[in-house]
Amino acid sequence: MQNDTLIEVKSLKMYFPVTRGILRKKIADVKAVDGVSFRIKKGETLGLVGESGCGKTTVARCVLRLYRPTAGQIIFEGRDIAQMPRRRIRPHRHKIQLIFQDPNGSLDPRQSAGSIVGEPLRIHHRVSSNTEYHQRVSELFRTVGLNPTMKDRVPHEFSGGQRQRIGIARALASNPSLIVCDEPISALDVSIQAQIINLLEELQHKLGLTYLFIAHDLSVVRHISDRVAVMYLGRIVEITDWKSLYENPLHPYTRALLSAIPIPDPLVEETRERIVLEGDVPSPVNPPAGCSFHPRCRLATEECRRVVPPLRRVAAHHEVACMRVEMTQNH
Amino acid sequence: MPHLLEVKNLRTQFKIDSTNVQAVDGISYYIDEGEIVGLVGESGCGKSVSQLSVLQLIAIPPGKIVGGEVLFEGVDLLEFKADSEQMRAIRGGKIGMIFQEPMTSLNPVLTIGQQIIESLVLHLKMDRTRARERAIDLIKLMGIPDASQRIDNYPHQFSGGMRQRAMIAMALSCEPGLLIADEPTTALDVTTQAQLLEILRNMVKSFNISLLIVTHNLGVVARYAQRIYVMYAGRIVESGTAKDIFSNPCHPYTVGLLKSVPRLDEPKGRKLVPIAGLPPMLSNMPTYCAFWPRCGNRRDACKERPRPELRRINGQHFIACDRDIGGKESVPIAE
């Protein structure tokens, strides 16, 4: 069982200090990620959903080791990389790559598409000769459905969807085993989004990739993921397989999120239950005591205001952090 | 009965590098009293420009409204100059507007209250004290707690959802007959989106306002709109009731859009069907159907015809496609 795990994150915490005054005295912590654990198997896609400020991007940056986490473990291919010093982590970086949200901001406007895609090959010493370099770049272009004759063009000469393909080719260049996709389609037009989702699915199938797929749109996440984790204020509140997520959501927040996504069919919409949450997401500097969702939760009791609910297993592949979910809801 | 707003054959051009680009190319639509209508399309299809043209808010030059009529309560708004007394009474008075990015539409150096009071004083000639009371009521109505204190906050002290609620309060302040909401929730979080759309719908019901939602999100229009217009490359390509559009989409573009988005309630493993290619460059439009290069049902014959006009296929259901439907053209289809 353990052997097919590619990455395991255990009690990950990432706090950012809030400072005041010229001495930059620390007055508080922003608990952006506060005890997140999950595991992704080889070849699997884990979807990470949540609203802005819930810490999903911070999780991604910790996994990529762009941040050094405050506490917790990130066990990647058997090694804990959470506190590994920069120099030692470098040889492992090529195995975890990132696809960005904004294809305009994440490509250097003055660099040619070919050199953008080829840069990781040089940095990570993946090629030994110039011929091999050019061959590999052309191959990467073809892999993502771009014509290699476009190598010399600069990003603005491409459409939004094509730019996202360049970003994907760059992520693939160093032969990664894990790709973190941070909202990879939310900046694209509706008719183009499907092209990118399909491409990501094909690549996973062909190259055996593992994805950590971050998005706020549950319908997209459900479509592409094998399992889905829902985050709220720095914690995972529910983690389950794609099927139970829609058929048997247990956490009140997950239910509200699902109900907020309209289904493009007026007949279905007529009969759907609407859960409209009150208020806004609280600030992570000063989160509510107890369950951080309780001020917006219709089921909240006195206990919810005091106790932080732990993530507990309610079915084989279903964990939820809520006091009010009865064990009887096992299926 | 005349429609509350009827737009006939509206055409808007932009002059770019000394060529004229037809951003809105002869669109016609209407909204009746108390109706929620959706205008759907991807970025660059002209959906926002068409709304800005209706309110004469496009920059002239480079923009220019070159033709058409905008009949609001029976009066053609295009008869008035953009900066005329009459247009100013319409904008924010009889027609309320909500835009996508609340931060850029609010003035950062004025309090939320001042901005709502301004339109009350201007349009309804209220005195400041009464206007302030009304502004507080409106803010309360939007579900913002501590309204009497929050009204003196500046926009940056509001969260994104609250800013957009303040925008809605402002748009509703003068009891408009029509509200135009251009991507009202796109920049917001999922649960906040749901909150705001419910508020909008409740307001429409309780004040008997008409609402035009301009969006790219098919789900939103399925949930809220009674009638829908689908735009592509400056024209309306399909229109009908929400049921027509979603249960029996007929234009290949509408069909394509619906097939390309994942749905929460569908079986897993359905392969998404993207629409091939890219939207056309408005500066380089073909003389034939603009969707032809991406169309799955195209015929060579389509290329020899001019851009197809809207034709009725059933009741209120219109499409701009010459393709035969069910073997017979312009005949109601069984199903």
Give a quick set of tags describing it.
heterodimer, A: 331 residues, alpha/beta, Rossmann fold, eight-stranded mixed beta sheet, four-stranded antiparallel beta sheet, 32% helix, globular, B: 335 residues, 2 domains, 12 strands
CATH topology of the largest domain in chain B: Rossmann fold
Shape of chain B: globular
SS elements, strand count of chain B: 12
Radius of gyration of chain B: 21 Å
Which percent bin holds the helix content of chain B?
A: 25-40%
Q: Can you tell me the CATH architecture of the largest domain in chain B? A: 3-Layer(aba) Sandwich
When the domains of chain B are counted, the total is 2
Major sheet attributes of chain A: 8 strands, mixed
At CATH level 3, the topology of chain A is Rossmann fold
Overall pLDDT confidence of chain A: 90
What CATH architecture of chain A would you give?
3-Layer(aba) Sandwich
Which secondary structure elements does this structure contain, and how are they paired or packed?
The complex is a heterodimer of chains A (331) and B (335).
Chain A: E1 5-20, E2 25-41, E3 45-49, H1 56-63, E4 71-76, E5 79-80, H2 86-93, E6 96-99, H3 113-123, H4 130-143, H5 160-172, E7 178-182, H6 190-207, E8 210-215, H7 218-224, E9 227-232, E10 235-241, H8 242-247, H9 252-260, H10 266-271, H11 302-306, E11 312-315, E12 318-320
Parallel strand pairs in A: 3-8, 3-9, 6-7, 7-8
Antiparallel strand pairs in A: 1-2, 1-4, 4-5, 9-10, 10-12, 11-12
Helix pairs in contact in A: 3-4, 3-5, 5-6
Chain B: E1 5-16, E2 19-31, E3 36-40, H1 47-54, E4 63-72, E5 75-76, H2 85-90, E6 95-98, H3 102-105, H4 112-124, H5 128-141, H6 147-150, H7 160-172, E7 178-182, H8 190-207, E8 210-215, H9 218-224, E9 227-232, E10 235-241, H10 242-247, H11 252-260, H12 300-304, E11 311-314, E12 317-319
Parallel strand pairs in B: 3-8, 3-9, 6-7, 7-8
Antiparallel strand pairs in B: 1-2, 1-4, 4-5, 9-10, 10-12, 11-12
